[in-house]
Amino acid sequence: MKTIVYLVCYFLYPFSFLFVRKRNRYVFGSFRKSFNDNAKYLFIYTSLNRENIDAIWLSLSKETVRQVRKMGLKAYKTTSPKGIWYALTARYWFFNAYTSDIMFCLSGGATCINLWHGVGIKRIEYNITSGPLAKRYRKEDWRDVFFHPESFRKPDYVASSSPFQNKFFSSSFRIPEEHCLMVGYPRNMILITTEEQRRDFIAKYEPSETAQMAEKMKGYNRVLVYMPTWRDSQLSLFAESMDLPKLNKVLNLNNELLIMKPHANVSAVLPQSSFSNIVFFNNTMDIYPLLPYTHVLITDYSSIIYDYLLMPEKDVILYIYDYDEYVAMRDFYFPYDENVVGKRVHTFDELLNCIDSHDYHLDNVDRQRIVQKFWGDTAGKDSSLLLLDTIPQLK
Q1: CATH architecture assignment, domain 206-374
Q2: Of 33, 255, 260, 325, whose CB is crowded by the most CB atoms within 10 A?
Q3: Quick one: which of 117, 107, 91, 106 has its CA closest to 34?
């Protein structure tokens, strides 16, 4: 059945080049049929601020379409007659990863803008040299090519953040450097906007659980958030490197809360036990509106560190318990030590002592060095506004 679906897709793809595409029609979509990440924030901004643009969210999920429509925004199921029509007649496609975020076989002739989902130092796409994904991009096995055509459909443009990142994205996606648009990421505006604007956004576009969590977080002296990267070899594991009862005891004594946020690619079975000071975040929710209410990020090799550093006065703990193993599976494009900041800990006991002693203050000079390197002139800017102003200038 899967093979038949893909054969139909390949049959339809050439016909998608025949449609006249309207320059003022933009379609948006995201991975896992959800309403999230950079595409979500750009879509909301476009819908509210550009009356001359016909902005439509497309998803294969009926539930996601209902969710977006409840917000008073325009959305259709991708495979519905209107969804297909809008996909075929939109001049610009915006997505978080690949054209499959909308539908690959309808993308011919569209200007495809990949918003991506993280500046960082890990090799991605065609720059990957080790691990399972290297087979796809290095060997281009016919099965991978056939069943993942979206991976080999180069975007016309990629959202970038600085000259430093342009070189990385250019080689990763095999596009000219001038097609890397230095606009930053739309999702980061929620991190640096005013408190009033953030609360208004949460009330209008986030589930009620988000506002409830924001209020809950106010009752603690500090809030920490653990956001590790995903590991090719540990897709079903999360927090295996932590003694949660022991950690909860320290947090309780200090009146601190720890939010545990698995990577979206991890389908982990979470612990059944409940803890007074540890919360496991629902992966279907967007954590970005809540990050400004946290004080410390615990991470490892994840690109979340670069977004988090855009917020002043925040601290970072780098919990790199499996550094050698991870590097063997997924190497870096840039040296790790030179391109991260934060208190490094290598064992759970070190992590526990660090949390308990609050020995993780981040030097502001180091913070600014990394922010300038990875974000350049886009730091603190409204990325949605920058991107939309750039679109008319594209070929």
Answers
A1: 3-Layer(aba) Sandwich (3.40)
A2: 260
A3: 117
